[in-house]
Amino acid sequence: MSTVKLTPMMEQYLRVKEEHPDTLVFFRMGDFFELFFEDAEVAARELQIALTSRNPGAENPVPMCGMPHHAIDEYLRQLLDKGYKVALCDQVEDPKQAKGLVRREVTRVLTPGTVVEDINLDAKGHNFLGALFWDAELGGGLAWVDFSTGAWSGLQTKSEAVLWQWLVKMNPRELLLTDAQQLPKDLEQWRPRISRFPEKSYFDGRGAEDRILRAQGVASLATLDLDDKPALTRCCGALLTYLELTQKRDLGHLAPFAPLDLSTTLHLDEVTERNLELFRTMDGGKGRGTLWNVLDQTQTPMGGRLLATRLHQPFKDLSAIQPVQELVAFLVDGDDAREGLRRALDKVYDLERLCTRIVVNRSTPKDFGALCASLAELPRMRRDLERLDPVPPLL
Predict the structure, then answer these.
(1) 233, 212 contact by CB (below 8 A)
(2) Band of the pLDDT at 3, cuts 50, 70, 90?
(3) Would 3 be classed as within a structural domain?
(4) Which of 173, 160, 70 is nearest to 112 (CA)?
(5) How many domains are there within the chain?
(6) Is the C or the N end of the chain the one with fewer CB within 10 Å?
């Protein structure tokens, strides 16, 4: 694309596009976001909106399409659901105060694995961004983060087969790989989810350690049980690099990293989960007929996600299983306690995602109202729990 004979505004757009070549650039112009050239053609086709042109009388008119800035959420949802990435290039100064061309900057890059808005998320499902690294000497690492909740984890293994099995199991919506990493033939369908990066810039061992220590506010990888997990450390570093690049803000809301302990977790591969119909029936259907559908009586999205994690990664250590059994037995037998908790929890919104949106400055007045309503229920729940005798350990 040449910038010859282009207006200063279009030259500004092309500079932004050059810096974000793998995204659809939403370029703010007054009350609208506009897309140009190939981006406009893609967006018009995928969103079924009108494709027009800038300077239609010119010899080579520039394809364009757009939408009001206050109505982009649904358009973004559709594009993200189809696997596209979007760079929001906003006006960062008041046009009335601008001397000449209005200054514009990319304030956020939206990708399928990094969104925080409810419109893009399954309430009771995780939205994972994953990173995978394999090296014959270092072993394999897989890390995943749900940026919408701040939870992240991962594992280190000496088996490449186990590594790919866990990838399928965790099912990240977006996956980061090195540019040299080969994809198994039976996972070719994953290609649309994959972003590839040079090992030296994203999966570098020393750089990864520095990024982790800075983001987590710790002095040693041993604090996070990462000191003997070099492949997993590289994956964590890649996730942090990608999040910093796309979110353009501090990542302080991430929880302390907690590696998955394969010695205490029962590994159920994809075939086993399918045969047990945990989340899908044998014919591939979701919902009715699955164990998840039978068990899911959770009142909050947070509880739903925790239940899904427990089904995906069941305990095999009795010391972890027995307290859960005791709590379940207590609530099954205690009708009053159970129903009181259910009534209170029914008024609690998704605190994990609400807090994330507030911290990363993506909240709305509705979010603050939901947070206030949820917090108002907590003292009542605490009083009800304190009246229980004896109180189960997990409560």
Answers:
(1) yes
(2) very low
(3) no
(4) 173
(5) 4
(6) N
Residue keyed to tokens 């164990």: 291
Token pair 């694995």 is found at 113
User: Over pLDDT 70: what percentage of the chain?
Assistant: 97
Tokens describing residue 376: 């108002």
The long-range contacts involving 265-270, CB below 8 angstroms and separated by at least 24 positions, are: 265/313, 265/314, 265/315, 265/316, 266/313, 266/314, 266/315, 266/316, 267/162, 267/165, 267/166, 268/169, 268/312, 268/314, 269/165, 269/168, 269/169, 270/165, 270/168, 270/169
The answer to the question of residue 121 being in a domain is no
Is residue 120 situated within a structural domain?
no
Are the C-beta atoms of residues 211 and 218 closer than 8 Å to each other? no
Q: What are phi and psi of 54, to 5 degrees?
A: -90, 135
pLDDT in tens, 112-154: 999 999 999 999 999 999 999 999 999 999 999 999 999 999 9
Q: How far apart are CA 340 and CA 334, in angstroms?
A: 10
366 conformational bin, left if phi > 0, alpha if psi -120 to 50, beta if neither: alpha
Q: What are phi and psi of 39, to 5 degrees?
A: -60, -40
Report how many helices (DSSP H) and strands (DSSP E) the chain contains, helices first: 14, 11
Residue type, 309: T
| 8 A C-beta contact, residue 123 and residue 138 | no
DSSP string, 249-310: S--TTSPPP----TTTB----HHHHHHTTSSB-TTS-BSTTSHHHHH---SSHHHHHHHHHH
Domain span at residue 56 reads: 8-110
CB of 132 within 8 A of CB of 176?
yes
User: Do 327 and 381 fall within a single domain?
Assistant: yes
